[in-house]
C-alpha cells in the first residue's frame, strides 16, 4: 500500500522478480480500459515482464465497486494459491484494501435518480454544503469524510436517502467475512512530504508531455462519457475534461491537476497512518526495495 507516486509499481516488479508472486492491482482507476497515461498504468514492457491482474477489465462507462473488487480479488487469490504462488496486492485504493481485509456491510444499491439529484446539487452548491448537510443527520460519517471528498459524501447521502438510516449505523460489521489468508502488510510512506509532492508534480508534467490530453479526447470520442461518471472523476481526468470544455487554461490544468493529486496523496497518507498491522518503509530511501525484499523473505518463511 502507499500514496500515489511513492513507487508501488516499481517495488512490485522488483519483488515479483525475486519471489514466486503474482500481482493483483488494487487501484480503482487501473481497472478502466484506454485510461493509460492519466492513471500511470504500467507500460506494455512492464506488464509483459510482470503481468498484473485487475487491469483493463471494464470500460470507462462502467461502474466498478469495492464489492466487485473483493469478489474478483478473492477469486484471483484462490487461483494464484492453487498454482503454488503468492498473491501480491498492490495499489493505492485503500477502500479496496479495507473491503478485502474486513469485508463489506450490506448497504443499499445505488439509486440513479437520487445520485443525479445529488450531482446537480453539488454542481450548484458545492460539496462542502452537502458535507454540512450530512453532518446534521450522520455526524459520525461526516467526521471521517473530508468536506471535499465528493464520492464518499455522495454515497453517504445516497445511503441515507435510500434507506432512511445513517451510513455509520449501517456499517455494523454484519457483512464481514473472514479473509482466509495470512496477511503480510507493507506500506510505503514518504519521510518528506515535500519530496513526494515534487514527484507528483514531475509525474503530472510527464503525463501531459506524453499525450494525456490526447488520451482524454480519444476517450470522449470513443465512449459515451459524462463528467460525472466515476472514471472521469478520477484525479487528472476531471481537470482535463474541464480544460477540453474550455473552463480552465493550460496553466490552470497543470496547477489544479497537480493540486488534486497532492490532495489524494494526503488522504492516502492519513488513512495509512491509522491502518493497523502494516510495516512501514520509507519510499524515499534509495535502498527501500532491498530493505522490503530482505524483510519479506523472512516473513514468507515464517
Task: Provide a descriptive summary of the structure in words.
The chain is mainly alpha-helical and 302 residues long. The chain has two domains: 8-104 and 176-300, Rossmann fold (3-Layer(aba) Sandwich); 112-170, Histone, subunit A. The chain contains 14 helices and five strands. Strands 2-1-3 form a three-stranded parallel sheet, with helices on both faces. Strands 4-5 form a two-stranded parallel ribbon. Strand 1, helix 2 and strand 2 (52-53) form a beta-alpha-beta unit. Helix 5 (112-125) crosses helix 8 (150-163) and helix 6 crosses helix 8. The longest helix is centred in the C-terminal third of the chain and has 24 residues, at 250-273.
Draw up the topology in text.
Layout: H1 8-18, E1 21-25, H2 44-49, E2 52-53, H3 66-82, E3 86-90, H4 94-102, H5 112-125, H6 127-137, H7 139-144, H8 150-163, H9 167-170, E4 186-189, H10 193-209, H11 212-222, H12 237-244, H13 250-273, E5 279-282, H14 288-300
Parallel strand pairs: 1-2, 1-3, 4-5
Quick rundown:
The chain has helices spanning 8-18, 44-49, 66-82, 94-102, 112-125, 127-137, 139-144, 150-163, 167-170, 193-209, 212-222, 237-244, 250-273, 288-300; strands spanning 21-25, 52-53, 86-90, 186-189, 279-282.
Features of this protein?
Histone, subunit A; three-stranded parallel β-sheet; two-stranded parallel ribbon; globular; 5 strands; 7% strand; mainly alpha; 302 residues; 14 helices; Rossmann fold
For the sheet with most strands, the description reads: 3 strands, parallel
> How are the strands of the biggest sheet laid out side by side?
2-1-3
- Average of per-residue pLDDT values: 93
Question: What ranges have pLDDT less than 50 throughout 5 or more consecutive residues?
Answer: none
Secondary structure class reads mainly alpha
What level of helicity do the residues show? 40-55%
